[in-house]
Amino acid sequence: MATINNIVKQLQEMQVDGETMQVIIEKLGMDDQMLRQLVLTKPTEMTVELLEEKETLYPYPSWIGVELPHHNGNVKVCIGINQEDGHEVSFCNQADIEQSPSDPWNFDGDLVVKYGKDERVFDDNHKLNK
């Protein structure tokens, strides 16, 4: 118990905010378990209110199309936000279109969506922050 109290004290001294705490929980791999515990232990009204708030803040699936010029032809990127299975990304280039005009899209890209003015999707080494 003393260890837990020390950790809580450190977090309080650091003035950890909710978004930082979420990152800590995610890095520990406990986000699904924490969500489950909170939903099961908090009043149902609280869960319903949060779901309604989520629908207000992020109501509809959205698509973003990006075309990036490249010396070998434009790279096209399609980003789906709040899709049925989460977020998704696909991309193709001119060679893909010429090779397979009816279905040139590659779906093996990664996508990270962060909310907040100080959030970063790439780290200092230009790697995606998952």
Structure description:
By secondary structure, the protein is α+β, with helices and mostly antiparallel strands. The chain folds into two domains: 2-57, no CATH class; 62-99, no CATH class. It is built from five helices and three strands, in the order ααααβββα. The chain has helices at residues 2-13, 18-27, 31-41, 44-57, 94-99; strands spanning 62-68, 75-83, 86-93. A three-stranded antiparallel sheet has the order 1-2-3. Strand 1 (62-68) and strand 2 form a beta hairpin. The radius of gyration is 20 Å and the shape is elongated. It starts with a helix and ends in a 31-residue tail after the last helix. The mean pLDDT is 87.
Summarize the structure.
With about 130 residues, this protein is of the alpha+beta class. The protein has helices at about 1-15, 20-25, 30-40, 45-55, 95-100, and strands at about 60-70, 75-85, 85-95. It folds into two domains: about 1-55, no CATH class; about 60-100, no CATH class.
Structural class by helix and strand composition: alpha+beta
Uncertain spans: none
N→C terminal distance:
32 Å
How helix-rich are the residues, as a percent range?
40-55%
Count of distinct strands: 3
Individual helix count: 5
CA-atom Rg in angstroms: 20 Å
Largest sheet: 3 strands, antiparallel
Query: Can you give the mean pLDDT?
Result: 87
Topology of helices and strands:
Layout: H1 2-13, H2 18-27, H3 31-41, H4 44-57, E1 62-68, E2 75-83, E3 86-93, H5 94-99
Antiparallel strand pairs: 1-2, 2-3
